Amino acid sequence: MTPRDVLDLMAKNNVEMVDFRIVDVPGRQHHVTIPAVEVTEDMLENGVAFDGSSIQGFRSIENSDMVMKPILDTAFVDPFYAVPTLGLMCQVYEPNGTRYDRDPRYIAEKAESYLQKLGIATHANFGPELEFFLFDDVRFDASSQGAFYSIDSEEAMWNTGRAEGPNLAYKVKNKAGYFPVPPTDRQQDIRTEIVLELMKAGLRVERHHHEVATAGQAEINFRFSTLTKTADNTMLYKYIVRQVAYKHGKVATFMPKPIYGDNGSGMHVHQSLFNGDDPLFYQEGGYGNISDLAKHYIAGILTHAPAVLAFSNPSTNSYKRLVPGYEAPVNLVFSKGNRSAAIRLPIASVSPKAVRIEFRTPDATSNPYLAFSAMLMAGLDGIRRKLDPTELGFGPIDKNIYELSKEEKQQIQSVPSSFEESLAALENDHEFLLEGGVFSKDFIYNWINLKRATEIEPLNLRPHPYEFQLYLDL
């Protein structure tokens, strides 16, 4: 789109306000709103100024002036405001007109450029499957004298005996929520509304259904696209899911493990490389019909997985999901159709272009621009070095890994057991991310320090409610 196209779109939809939006380093969106009558072609080309020191992970206060420039093709009419409003994703620039190195979207763009410079492929396709919960009530507090959290859902198993005036039963049992029909599935209509809003915003939605856990777990899948475009779509997806939920008096959360004792929420990421229209991951007759290039890519991801998880599973809560027994892909192996492996090869692929890998470990607390870029860079490192996943001990394994003998399990590498372990792995293994100038050492160490200072250390300093049960009487 051109600036004139955007202005015409605004006129056609009687737009009164324009939202300029950016994504901070952890992955939260921020916006500034400008009356439509003040938005000109010049503003759409040159952007608007903002205070970078107020954005987490960006600038300090003495060097805070920054510019956000809209990406015109991301324009959509936001249906959630009281007056017609146009939303625009933006890139972040220095005041002198150069791109800002810590802008997550810039890193994604550089990853795509690096792929093309290598001459391996023209583009990479990414297709995430985001799972989330829709709760009816969420309360929490963490102060010096106490801490608690409480969640609730009308379909939660723990509410079978609650007086609801009347209680109509049909609660979802633990681990029994994988697409039952209504009335057990209470959220069919709200998911459908989310799908319709996603489609109006330009996303191609493939399916939606209830997920395995009790208390309102859901999944809505949208169509794959190129790396940066898919990251844009992921941010828009999360925004629309939250807004529709809020409209219905519910809270949408992409936390990986909000419920103890039931399945968590992941973000399985399907990936493939193409040279024009030619699928590079396909080889007829090979294991899972994948090519040697795909195997090298798999080996790269699994080799660097502990470091990649610092971006793809970047929260302390992420590692409460990554435990055996809840369909969590903690095993660093690949396999055909096996959902207990970190990388699965979907064997239901019906054409060469549909052949892909599925990295099942990530979750949606990740910043998609950073997570997808880290995965691509790890895979490309495997291709450049011609790594062999079998020689490296990554399989394939076509058995249920959770049912292997103790001796067999000891031969399988696992993901880190904590966020701190992943950050330490990133400290020790990040050269592959620096190739082509995609990530910088400044960004990587800024990420590590930010996560330790704002998440890991504050959590480690606080007593946990369960510690009182464990230790009060000792």
TrEMBL record:
This is Glutamine synthetase. It catalyses: L-glutamate + NH4(+) + ATP = L-glutamine + ADP + phosphate + H(+). SMART domains: Gln-synt_C. Belongs to the glutamine synthetase family. InterPro entries: Gln_synt_N, Gln_synt_N_sf, Gln_synth/guanido_kin_cat_dom, Gln_synth_cat_dom, Gln_synth_gly_rich_site, Gln_synth_I, Gln_synth_N_conserv_site. Its EC number is 6.3.1.2. Keywords: ATP-binding, Cytoplasm, Ligase, Nucleotide-binding. It is found in: Cytoplasm. SUPFAM superfamilies: Glutamine synthetase, N-terminal domain, Glutamine synthetase/guanido kinase. The lineage of its organism: Bacteria, Bacillati, Bacillota, Bacilli, Bacillales. It holds the Pfam family Gln-synt_C. Residues 104-474 form the GS catalytic domain. The keyword Nucleotide-binding applies. GO terms for molecular function: glutamine synthetase activity.
